[in-house]
Amino acid sequence: MGGDFAPIQTLKGAILAKKELDDQDKLVLFGPKNIISEKLIEHGENVADYQIVDCSQTIEMSEDPVKAFIAKTDSSITKGFYYLQNDLIDGFASAGSTGAMLVGATKVIGLIDGVLRPCISSHYPNDEGQDNLILDVGINSDSKPEQLVQFAQLGSLFAKHIMHIDNPKVALLNIGEEENKGNSVVKEAYQLLKNESSINFVGNVEGGDLYKNSRVNVIVCNGFTGNIVLKLAESFYDILADRNIKDPFFEGFNYENFGGTPILGTKKTIIVGHGKSSDIAIKNMILLTGKIIKSKLCEKTIKTFNYDKN
Prior knowledge:
The chain is an alpha/beta fold. It has two domains: 1-115 and 265-296, Isopropylmalate Dehydrogenase; 116-254, Isopropylmalate Dehydrogenase (3-Layer(aba) Sandwich).
């Protein structure tokens, strides 16, 4: 029951998601059982239709994520990762503390063998009315060339199996299209990507190319750059919304449409939601979690990296 507007918006989102989930899907809610039950009844729901795991603690956004994760063993995030680790659930999503989610993802669930660093991605609308993908957008402020190559591989797998893009075009975000442009990290990453047979590398792209479907599907950068691109894109949507200007293209910058982002490179499905998630964002976060589980993205990623090791 994480997020700035929990538990009300979180529960409303869960109710909306349940109406769209398949009958065989099981939705497990982590949080104070008495409050969750009370609110479900208020919204006309049958409490018996939900599995509730009682949690008495909350990891606050302002707390040190490592210390809080260890100390607050009865928090919804800590318990959620215990359930995920022990195969009691197939995927875990939360709009709570991002830091605590990363602690659980890396220290409890762990990275896929061969993956150097996890990363997170974001959708970016393109000129064909679909979406491109950009990663990393926040976890890794600095990235080594080898890590950028792995982000490209992880993004390519996501684009193929979740976004259903055949042979996705992967490009490196740079200050110019030429092979010799950029800093030493980007230049070395370019050479590694050029020789990486598992992806369809198409070279460098500049900031003005991010929306061009004919040019790129997956944009690779470090988390510092990616986060700036993401926040700038979100600001476009906010400015237009404030001015009451509606345009289908810019609606693609609305985070609510996607709900959350998977932590790519981990052994199991983990989704991080926006702290200020509305009920619509929570709904889409839950639906995305189910979609990734059913696609077996983690299993396919494990297979890919095991193949690379051999």
